[in-house]
Amino acid sequence: MVERFRAMMVTKEGDAQSVGFQEIAVDDLMSGDTVVNVEFSTLNYKDGLVLTGAAPVARTFPMIPGIDLVGTVESCESGEFAPGAHVIQNGFGLSETHFGGYAAKARVKSEWLVALPENMTPRQAMAIGTAGYTAMLCVMALEDAGVTPDKGPVLVTGAAGGVGSVAVALLAKLGFEVVASTGRAEEEAYLKDLGASSIVARDDLSGKPRAMAKENYAGAVDSVGSTTLANVLSQIKYGGAVAACGLAGGMDLPASVAPFILRGVSLLGIDSVQAPIERRREAYKRLAQDLDLEKLESMITDVPLSEIVEWGGKILAGQVRGRAVVDVNA
Question: Domains in the chain, start-ordered, CATH in brackets?
Answer without folding.
Answer: 5-116+299-327 (3.90.180.10), 130-269 (3.40.50.720)
